[in-house]
Amino acid sequence: MNELASRRASEAFSLEGAPEIYLTPVERPSLEQALLWCRQLATTHYENFHVTTFFLPKRLRPHFFSVYAFCRTSDDLGDEVGDTKTASRLLGEWRAMLHECFEHPERSRHPVYVALEPTIRQCELPREPFDDLITAFEQDQVYTKHESLATLEEYSRYSANPVGRLVLLLSGYRDEAMMRLSDEICTGLQLANFYQDVVTDWVDRGRRYLPADAMQRFGVTDEQIAVRRFDANYKEMMKFLVEDARVRLERGAKLTTMVERDLAATLQLFVKGGLAILDAIAAQDYDTLEDRPVVTKAKKLRLLGGALVGRVAASMSRKSAMRRAGADSKQGQAA
Question: 144-300 belongs to which homologous superfamily?
């Protein structure tokens, strides 16, 4: 394909109607410009991103910025454009641009895909988890009420689990058993966030992530959620759902013992953060209709302190191993 045809192929993908920050630039940015764009997006759109990336091995941070920028852009193309028709069109274009990045990366002009290409190549990332994330945001446009825990699990398979799998892949782990443990963490954390944001999702987005089968089992109705009426039935339902999410997080926590310590500190932060949300729900007697449960600043500091201790321990362990290796080498030379 000649240069003009290549340019026209890329220009066929339009993000017109997206928030201005996500519009594709006229000229392809350099890799340095694209990486800076992703870093700025990551560190200005998510208050905890500085914290989570601090605990990651330093070599992974640029890759993490690129993957996060893809996730953030995908999410906002689905949620920040005002109507489902436009959102569906934009997500379709975004998917086509993803496929172009994998098949003809030299044609990509959006900074996310310019930055993502070396990450895909160097870390040998498959296309599936990226495709799955876009599928989740497409589902949000048409599927706004979940019928069962099984449908929530299926939704999490697309909306949450790919993120954990990408983190493992970026870190060089490809074992399927480890991937399944990651899925447990990501699904548990996703469910915890859903149960924390019952009112916000209903009022602001018209979505219900409480499973209908659990609602029916415990005698809770959509009308009850709409008027925010808390009762014993709602409490028992939330206790059941919170315990289910807690079990998932605790099962997945085994993964933290199977990875290098820097990554383990980050994964522990996610697990303990999810458990802290569930504890906050329980602390207000499972009433997520009156007030949104929040994790206190003191609790967050304790979580960060624990993660920091783990990171320092990892660093000390590495240094100790290097000293032992150096001593053994000297002894060998002396012999």
Answer: Farnesyl Diphosphate Synthase (1.10.600.10)
Lowest mean pLDDT among 43-47, 152-156, 259-263, 270-274: 43-47
Segment 163-179, tens digit of pLDDT: 999 999 999 999 999 99
> Which residues touch 200 (CB under 8 Å, ≥6 apart)?
292
Total residues belonging to the chain = 335
| Same CATH fold assignment for domains 7-142 and 144-300 | yes
Are 73 and 23 in contact by the 8 Å Cβ rule? The answer is no
Regarding pTM above 0.85, the answer is no
Question: Tokens 């000229």 label which residue?
Answer: 27
CA nearest neighbour of 84 among 143, 165, 160, 163: 143
Return the CATH number of the domain spanning residue range 7-142. Answer: 1.10.600.10
- The tokens describing 238, both together, are 């939330």
Residue 170 CB-density burial (10 A; 0-12 exposed, 13-18 middle, 19+ buried): buried
